[in-house]
Structures are given as structure tokens and as C-alpha cells.
Design brief:
With 209 residues, this protein is mainly α. The protein is built from 8 helices and no strands.
């Protein structure tokens, strides 16, 4: 790792933390389940499949981009990722309501799938790609290949997930123990709009870093 690229790993951690703040990424569901059952252990249990689903969504996005990187140039791959981010961000600006579930009785597999779909729908994996592009450039030291190695991709997913889990668990604990869900009704829309703006901003970053 060179000095110029040393910021990319903390960036992955901070992106995970940012994803963890978003109520639509999991902690809201975990807290709701805990309040329904009136047990904080349910909150902790819910975070396991929620985190797994989020990590899978990030891994799928990274894998798909990595495979494309072997058949298209890095420049074209950046354009594809930026276009996808702009599309997701624009969609979130226009429709910033979250899909409602049919019930609160969910198992481990159901919660993992829900988290995977929510993270994918929010474009969470796409937001990680600009950092991976930079790491890939460092790894290849100027070579034309755009795909990244399995160890690099795995480490990126792990670091991002660690940041996500730490913040998700912290926010869920604070909300469950101190605040409750009622005060979050107004803040929900605001966070979703911020998320849409972050997607568009990340799309811009994809084109310049």
C-alpha cells in the first residue's frame, strides 16, 4: 500500500459507519423486533443476519464490478458505476419511501434476505466501488487490468462490514434503551433524502478519484 492510497482503507470503514447510521439499513428493524418481543437479546440477535445480508450485498456488487473489470477498461467501469449511482440517487430523490414488510415474524434466513435486498436497493455496494477503483489502481501499479484480487476484495468487505456493524449496534442500543421509535418518524424522510444525495455525490466522486 502506498502513502497516496492509505486513506482508502479508513474510507471503507467510514462508509460502513455511514451505512450503519441509515435506519433503512437495519437498526430500525432490529429495534422494532426487540420492542415487539420486549427483549434486548432480540435486538442483538437481529443484528447478526442483518449484518450478514449487508455484507453479502456489498460482496455481490464488488464481485460483479470485478468481473466486468476483466472485460471493460477501468474508465468504462467507472462510467458504468457512476451512471448506476446517479440512477439510484435520482430514484431515491423521487421515491423516498421504504417498502413495508408483511409482518414482524421473521427467521434468520428471512432477515438476511431482507437486509441483502434493502442494502442492494439503496445502492450500498455501489458506494464502495470508487474506493475499490483506487485500491485496484494501487494493486496493479499502473497496469491496465481493472479487476481486483480476491484477498483485496475480501479485506474491503470485512473492513466495511466492521464499520457498519459497530455503528448499527451502537445506534440500535441507544434507540432501544434511551429513545424509542416514536421520535424517529419525522427524521426518517430526512435521512432518506440525505442518502439519495450521498449516492449522487458518490457518483461524482467515482468520476474524479
Amino acid at each position: 500500500m502506498n502513502d497516496a492510497g492509505s486513506w482508502r482503507w479508513p474510507a471503507l470503514l467510514l462508509l460502513g459507519a455511514y451505512h450503519g447510521i441509515n435506519p433503512g439499513m437495519g437498526w430500525l428493524f432490529a429495534v422494532a423486533l426487540g420492542m415487539q418481543e420486549r427483549r434486548r437479546a432480540v435486538v442483538a440477535w437481529s443484528l447478526v443476519p442483518i449484518t450478514l445480508g449487508h455484507a453479502l450485498a456489498i460482496a455481490v456488487a464488488i464481485t460483479a464490478a470485478g468481473v466486468l473489470g476483466f472485460v471493460v477498461s477501468l474508465g468504462h467501469l467507472r462510467l458504468i458505476a457512476a451512471a448506476a449511482l446517479f440512477a439510484f440517487g435520482g430514484y431515491r430523490f423521487i421515491r423516498h419511501r421504504h417498502p413495508k414488510g408483511g409482518g414482524m415474524r421473521v427467521g434468520f434466513r428471512d432477515l438476511t434476505l431482507w437486509s441483502f435486498l434493502m442494502a442492494s436497493a439503496h445502492g450500498a455496494g455501489l458506494m464502495v466501488l470508487p474506493v475499490l477503483f483506487g485500491l485496484s489502481s494501487d494493486e496493479h501499479s499502473g497496469h491496465s487490468a481493472a479487476g481486483w484480487s480476491l484477498p483485496l476484495a475480501s479485506l474491503a468487505v470485512g473492513i466495511h462490514t466492521a464499520g457498519y456493524l459497530a455503528v448499527t449496534a451502537l445506534v440500535a442500543a441507544i434507540i432501544y434503551e434511551k429513545i424509542g421509535l416514536a421520535v424517529l418518524r419525522q427524521a426518517w424522510v430526512n435521512m432518506d433524502l440525505i442518502w439519495a444525495g450521498a449516492l449522487v455525490f458518490t457518483g461524482l466522486l467515482t468520476l474524479v478519484i
